[in-house]
Amino acid sequence: MHNKMETTTARLEEAEERIGELEDKVMEKEEAEKKREKKIQEYEGKIRELSDTLKRNNIRIIGIPEEEERGKGAEGVLEEIIAENFPELGKEKGIEIQEAQRTPFRRNLNRSSARHIIVKLAKYKDKEKILKAARGKRALTYKGRPIRLVTDLSFETW
C-alpha cells in the first residue's frame, strides 16, 4: 500500500511538472504574440505615415461628374475650378500639376456618387495655397455644381 502511495505521488509530481512546463510555454507564446501585435501596429503606423508623406502634394476633388474630364483631362478640370473659384490664383503662373486621375472603380452599388479626382501638384506650397483659398471661400462650384477640395490622405488616416 505504501508502495502504491509513493508511485501515485511520483506520478502526480511528474504530471504537475509537465503542467507547469506547458503553462510556461503558453505564457512565452502569449508574450511573443503580444510583441508581434505591437510590432504589427508599429509597422502599420509607419506605412500610414509613408503613404501620407507620398500623398503630401495631392488634392482630392469630390463632386465632379463622371466623364467630365473627357477631352481636357483631369488636369484641365482643376484648372477650370481654379479659374471659376479663385481668379487671383488663376493669374499666378507658378502652379504646376504633375498628374491627375480618377480614383479606381470600387464596387459599391449603394453609392451613386462619382469617383474622386486625385491631383498631384509639383509643390506642397501650391497645394496649401489652393486649399487655403478653398477654405476661405464657403461654397466651391464647378459649372454650377457644388464640389469639395480636400487634402488626399491614406485610407487609414481618413
TrEMBL record:
Under the heading Gene3D superfamilies, the entry gives: L1 transposable element, RRM domain, L1 transposable element, trimerization domain
Q: Give the residue ranges for region: Disordered.
A: 1-38
Q: Where is the composition biased (Basic and acidic residues)?
A: 11-38
Q: Which InterPro entries match?
A: L1_RRM_dom, Transposase_22
The protein's superkingdom reads Eukaryota
Instruction: Write out the biased-composition intervals (Low complexity).
Output: 1-10
Q: Report the residue ranges that make up the L1 transposable element RRM domain in this protein.
A: 56-152
Q: Which Pfam families match?
A: Transposase_22
Q: Which PANTHER family match?
A: L1 TRANSPOSABLE ELEMENT-RELATED
Protein's recorded name: L1 transposable element RRM domain-containing protein
Protein source organism: Felis catus (Cat)
Q: What phylogenetic lineage does the species belong to?
A: Eukaryota, Metazoa, Chordata, Craniata, Vertebrata
